[in-house]
Design a protein that fits this description.
This protein is an all-alpha fold and 147 residues long. The chain is 76% helix and 0% strand.
Length: 147
């Protein structure tokens, strides 16, 4: 018996749970793509004005990563908790990086790439790829562990 079964109806999550790592992986790739587009837009906005605006699709992918990682934490607690910590760290890094871009734009400084958010996003991509594509190396991995 699942202790949360009376609190939250989780039957639907057991049906989609195995697909969550693939969804998180796709969302992580999309997040990296929107991060690149957002940075390009910030550079253009800073050259024209003295502030930068948030990029909507990038905010959507951040929200999607956090939501999917929380759902994955319910389905697979250990891996989901690690992924959730990384996703929340990514959102916090994005907030601080966005404010840094605004400061750079106001002071006519060159706009830097969001380095900490890029590293965190790459870690999410690697971890989601591990869970999504582990079946490709599962036999080799199990043989190496048992040997």
């Amino acid at each position: 018996m699942d202790p949360l079964q009376f609190l939250v109806p989780l039957g639907w999550l057991s049906a989609v749970g195995p697909a969550l790592p693939f969804a998180i992986f796709v969302m992580a790739v999309t997040n990296l793509a929107t991060r690149h587009v957002a940075h390009s837009r910030h550079v253009v906005q800073a050259s024209v004005g003295d502030s930068v605006e948030p990029y909507g699709p990038h905010a959507f992918t951040n929200f999607g990563l956090v939501t999917l990682s929380f759902l994955f934490a319910i389905h697979q607690p250990t891996g989901g908790a690690i992924l959730s910590i990384l996703a929340v760290t990514l959102v916090l890094a994005d907030l601080f990086e966005f404010e840094s871009r605004n400061v750079e734009a106001r002071n006519d400084m060159p706009i830097e790439a969001p380095k900490s958010a890029i590293v965190t996003s790459a870690l999410i991509l690697l971890y989601a790829g591990y869970y999504a594509f582990f079946f490709l190396v599962a036999d080799i991995w199990n043989q190496a562990i048992l040997a």
